[in-house]
Amino acid sequence: MISLLNRGIIPKDVDLTPAFEKGAPPVQFRGMKFHDKAEMHAKNEVHTEKFNRNSIRFDLQPPTRRLDDTS
Length: 71
Known about the structure:
This protein has helices spanning about 1-5, 15-20. It has about 70 residues and is mainly alpha-helical. It has 2 helices and no strands.
């Protein structure tokens, strides 16, 4: 809406209140997820290069049976 007003598509003296009285609100708020304070200074790996799909290797071998597997 602000973009439409700034570009002059909607005149600045128009009352937009009736447009927002019915239906879903234009802005919705949700609760915010809080993280544990211990995680605040945790060092995470930072990726500075583009993602290279050629660097991914898949293990396409069939799964082997474990020794404790009786089936």
